[in-house]
Structure formats: C-alpha cells, structure tokens
Input
Amino acid sequence: MRGDGVSSVFHRTAQPVEAVAAQGCWVVDAGGNRYLDAAGGAIVCGVGHGRPEIAAALADQAIALDYVHAATFTTPALETYADRLSAHLPMEEPRVFPVSGGSEATETAIKLALAYHAARGEPHRTRLVGRRASYHGNTLAALDLSGRASLRSPYEALLGRFSHLPASTESDDPSWHARTLEEALVEFGDVAAFVGEPIGGAASAGAVPPDGYWEAITDVCRRHGVLVVADEVMTGFGRTGRWFAADHFGLRPDILTAGKGAASGYWPLGLCVASDEVAATVGEGRFVHGFTYSHHPIGAAVAGAVLTIIEEEHLVERSAEAGDRLRRRLVGAGFEGLVGAGFEGLSGRGLLIGLEVGDSAEVTAACRRNGLLVYPATRSAILLGPPLTIGDDEIVELVSRLSLAAG
Ligand code: PLP
Output
C-alpha cells in the first residue's frame, strides 16, 4: 500500500477482495469469510485447492532443476509428462508444445497451422476461421479469432484478419453448418484452419452443439485441406465428464489447445498439441516460434502431479456423475429453461454448467455476498465449474446459496 492509501497493484477490478487461503472447494478472505468456489476461479481449479502433493512436486522440481531454455534442452519432467498425457488425448501420437496459458496456446496453434501449410507448399493459407459466440484468448491474434464483441471492441483497430462463422447453436441442422462452412472456405480460398471449442465456454455459457455437428464440420475441413483446431482450454482435463470434450463427439482434431485444468491453477500452463502429421510436416527445429517459459520443467512436474490426481481419484468419471447430481438439484430448485441444448435444458456437460439468470453481473455479485463464487459468462448467463472433487454436501450447499442469490 502506498502512502496515499492506494494499492501499488494495478488490479483487474476496482475493489478486489483479499483472498488469504484456499482448501478443497473453499476460498477464505482476509475477513475470515468462506466462499464456496463453484467456478474453480475461472473454471481452472479441477483437482481442488491446497493439494500438498502438487506443492511437493513443484518444490522437488524447483530444487532438482528449476529452468533451462527449451531452445537447447529438454527435461525428464517434460518427456514423462508428454508421454503420460498422450494416452488421454483424442489424437494419434500427439506432440505436446507447452506454453504459459490458454492465450499463448491459441497463438501457438495459429502459427502452427500457418507453418504446416507453408511446409506443404501452400503459404497462401493464412486465414483462420472461428465462430461467433466464442472465446480463444486475449492476446491479439487469439482475440481476433474470438467472437466476443465486448472484449474486441476497444481493440477493433488492431483486429480483422480472421473470419467468424455461425456459433453451433445458431442452427440445429449440421448440414446447414457444413454448407455455410463450405461456402466460406470456397469464397475465401486461403483458410488454414477452423477453430472451435467442442463445447462452448465463457462466450456461450457451455453451449453443446447439435448431434452430428462436429462430424459435418470435420468432413468439410478434411475435403478442403483445412486443419481442425479444438480449443479445450476450458473443457479439457475432465471438466465435461470426459477427458476432453472432443471425446463426446468422436472428434479427432489436428491441433488441440488446453490450459486451465491442465495444471489446475498451481502453475500458469497452456498446451498446444499437434497431431503427429502436423508436427512431422512442420518439422522439429523448423517451427519459428517459442517463449522464454515454454516447455518449463516445473510446469510439467506440476501438470504431472495434477494428472496423477485425476487418474487415481477417477475425477473424469466423478465429473460426469457429480455434474448429473448438480443438474438434478438445480432443476429441483427451479432452475429450468436454461441455456442451449443438453441435459434437462441445462447447457454444458459434466461439471461445466451454463445457467440463464437474467443479469449475470448482478447475480455474480449477489452470489459473492452469499459466499458463493460463480463465473459470469454472457451478459445473461453464468457458468458453474467447481473443482471436480466437489462432495455431495457441497453440491447441496452450492444450490442452496445459488437459490438465495438468484432464485
Ligand atoms: N480458450 C478458451 C476456450 C478459454 O476459455 C480461455 C480463457 O478463458 C482461453 C482460451 C484463454 O486462456 P488464458 O486466459 O489462460 O489465456
């Protein structure tokens, strides 16, 4: 705090609450108030707060080998992690490029798509196609790919290189989506990749696409030599009741991005994963890209500890079961007619649930006053995404606090 009483931190929000501790599904502030973390921060914390085994993995790696530059070195922590993760990814022989967050993962995917086409002799393919009601990150290329008007508008002068097609919820007819995409690909003639969240996140409050959507999209992309990029930054690592949301649809992307649940908030980690074909075509050492902190050994050690917890505690299955229980309770408490497709009218899958609440900012603030943390998604909808470890009693508590704030 400065002498004039103003914080030396340039905060993201005008009057942030000071958090001092977190354990399991609970966050404690400086005044001793306890908040049930029904949003896992920003749908980040999958394995619960305060896990000593992750802290131990982080400390052990920092002591053994803190940092080396990835332009020269690889590390046992990273090699082991990538091997273990490969078994869960919806891709054959995937190749993992770790970075420091979801936006960096998107940037990496964008460049990788261009590098792939350049290596195949099609350097004119430089356009990325995203969708309306989507979010892929806040760095400039990732933002350009995102269809979220409120985040784009202050920076429109720097955007405009990419194109946006309809969101998956704009029609129930997959063949309409396929036709719309095919017409756009033919018209543009320079498309490198189609990028989409397999199940929507922040910009669509967990929108689930209609049956056959991803098959139709993938078929058009393959016929036109366009890469399919699945953004699993929010939906990966068990959040939707499968390891990756792509698994719900048999989707096998050429490139996949992840973040959030990969390290569960214990380390700023993002992942860009290439299919073997994409990686081999570009070639190791020929991808002109990298960050000081990419391929970080501590990030890999932390993510390895998170992976162990997800596997040993069967958190993917638990996400599916707890998600169904939470949905049933929400419906029982009168939360019906909610966003998009999906179980009993609630959007999302597993422990990613979108709720139409009226004014999401107001409801989020009311929830916080009632000791409940939710994630404001669209202007009118919130997202619930608690740690996958949430217990039955905590589900009851969550619905009770939500009903007080928004019922
Ligand atoms: N992609 C999706 C689907 C996201 O939900 C987010 C963040 O919310 C991002 C990308 C960007 O990730 P980050 O905020 O870690 O940069």
Q: What stands out?
A: The chain has two domains: 19-50+314-406, 53-311. The two ends are 39 Å apart (CA to CA).
